[in-house]
Structure formats: C-alpha cells, structure tokens
Amino acid sequence: MAHKITDECVSCGACAAECPVSAISAGDAHYEVDEAACIDCGACEGACPTGAIQA
Ligand code: SF4
User: Fold this and answer.
1) By alpha-carbon position, which residue is closest to atom 2 of ligand 1?
2) pLDDT digits (tens, 9 = 90+) for 5-16
3) With 49 labelled, which of 7, 8, 9, 37 sits at a CA distance of 20 to 30 A?
4) Domain boundaries of the chain, sorted by first residue
C-alpha cells in the first residue's frame, strides 16, 4: 500500500523534497502520491506540517 495524502494538505510542497523516489507531485486539489512509484518508506510523513500524509 502506497502512502496517501489527504484533504488536510495545504500544498506547501514540503513532502515532495523528502521523497527518495520522487513519487510526490502537485495534484489538482492537493499534492498526490504516485502509488506505482511509492516504496512506502515513510520519509514524507514527518515532513508534513498538517499531518496530511497517511500510511
Ligand atoms: Fe515517497 Fe516514501 Fe512517501 Fe512513498 S512513503 S511517497 S516513497 S517519501
């Protein structure tokens, strides 16, 4: 299961810089995780100021 970014996301972009496989990009409503690319490392979770990233 890939990590997911919820509606709590304020599109600050902090998580994208932390992802080692560049799986996070700006989506339509908020940032999104490419499920096919995510390796579930969890590196992005701690970077989110609003706790919008869930395992
Ligand atoms: Fe990227 Fe790791 Fe977050 Fe998946 S869990 S989106 S691989 S930083």
Assistant:
1) 41
2) 999 999 999 999
3) 37
4) 4-50
Q: What 3-state class would DSSP assign to 51?
A: coil
> Given the CA of residue 55, which atom of ligand 1 is nearest to it?
5
Q: Which residues contact 28 (CB under 8 A, 6 or more apart)?
A: none
Please tell me the distance from the alpha carbon of residue 30 to that of residue 11, in angstroms, as a whole number: 5
CB of 32 shorter than 6 A to ligand 1: no
Q: What is the pTM of this model?
A: 0.89
- Name the CA dihedral angle for 47, 49, 11, 1, rounded to a multiple of 10 degrees: 50
